[in-house]
Design a protein that fits this description.
Blueprint lengths: L1 H12 L3 H5 L3 H24 L1 H8 L2 H29 L6 H39 L26 E10 L8 E11 L5 E6 L13 H5 L19 H11 L10 H14 L3 E8 H10 L3 E5 L3 E3 L17 E3 L2 E6 L1 H9 L6 H18 L2 H6 L1 H11 E3 L6 H12 L3 E4 L3 H4 L8 H16 L30 E3 H4 L10
Parallel strand pairs: 1-4, 3-10
Antiparallel strand pairs: 1-2, 2-3, 4-9, 5-8, 6-7, 10-11
Helix pairs in contact: 1-5, 1-6, 3-4, 4-15, 5-6, 6-14, 8-9, 10-11, 10-14, 11-12
Length: 494
Amino acid sequence: MSQAVVRTLLGAAVPGLGFIMGGRKRLGVAVLSVAVGLVAIAGIVAVTDPNAVLALAVSPGRLLIATSAVVLLGLGWIWVVVASHKLLRPVSVSYTGRLAGSLFVGVLCFAIAVPTTFAAETVMAQRDLVGSVFKSESNSKSATRPTNVNASDPWAHTPRLNVLLLGGDSGKGRTGTRTDTVMVASIDTRTGNTALISLSRNWMRMPFPKNSPLHAKYPDGYWDPSLGDVEQSQYYLDTMYDTIPQKYPGILGQTDNEGADAVKLAASAALGLDISYYLQINLQGFQQIIDAVGGITVNINYRVPIGGEYGLGPGANKPKPPSGYLEPGPNQHLNGHDALWFARGRYGLSDPSRQERQRCTIHALVNQVSPVTLLTKYQQIAAAGKSLFRTDVPQELLPAFVQLGLKVKSAAVSNIDLNSAKNFPNGRNPDYAAMRVIIQKAITAQATTKPAHSPAKRPSAPATRKATPKPSVTPGGQQNLNDACAYHPSTAGS
């Protein structure tokens, strides 16, 4: 009986081998040929046509087929194990031997069923995520995204892709959604080199393109000139997402997210960039996804408040002090709650300091999540992602976006300094024209950078372990995020 058990194990490891050893050579060769053929085809496709793999990973229809295939392959594998054992076990065997053999086969079948089920559930989680967040172009509406884009090569005539990143906060006790985080990622589609541009939440007079119906409503920018040159918190950039759809519903035409389209138009005009798509992140969902990946490690250079309210602005909560602080230190590992407050804490601190922490948070998340973490915790990540993201990127462009994302991960990511001291010492009247000049110079300089021939090695945690002086940044210049996010404890959150 022991010999039959060993042969059954070999037949499970190499499907078809059990049939061959049991005398059913034709059947065994057929099963073995199918198994080897499937493995060979999968390997060849993965190596020679990675685009096909990407297309599979972001297509709900293909993912459903893949799930069915995984289940059928698992059931077929179990049938091979059971049938091989029946063929290999001795004709005359004791009851104890038969029971032991059956138990062994049961364990083998369980060992096959568990990873098969996990794989099927993971594929379905991916399908659910893609279907929930990304809609096909025919099933979604946008007033601002490009039309007639060639999905097979969408960047052919797009040397730089500009994407608006919004951090939406609709927390407890707050009216509507406040976009406290507004950034633009300008990506060189050839090299993956990326420039991040942060917009201050309290900017006023945000312009709109002259061909936009919103320009007719706000010819002097997003503010009320009749109130004079004073702080108008109701016209801060972070109110636009809610205010425009409420005040002028439908003004931009058919769209699934009029607030995001309004902010996209304003950011395009203010920065002089053609912004194609937006990605909106729900801050509570962000906390869940950080927990799902096991947290992130960052350098904290000064005390960062947890909570706290000034009580200013439309829809704000009552004034209250912070409930606590994140203390300074190098290589601080943060869970979702603390990472969220590291990115958004601003009580007693400046907006530029918070913008820098937000960039460092994104930098840490992109660089520190390992393939092993994605594989083992993907279902939790996908579940969090469903409540985390909102976007106008159509489903058809996902393979191209994934490829571009891989370029970005191994390329240079920098921040463009907009010279706040000169161009927006406060938010009342920013010099958008001067900022546009800075941005164009920085992007032109980055475009001359040659693409790397091999992916740069990324540290699993911030490289800084000892305090180092913070590198000086030329106003209007660029700063590498590895330097900006290092440990500089002498700096304050100003």
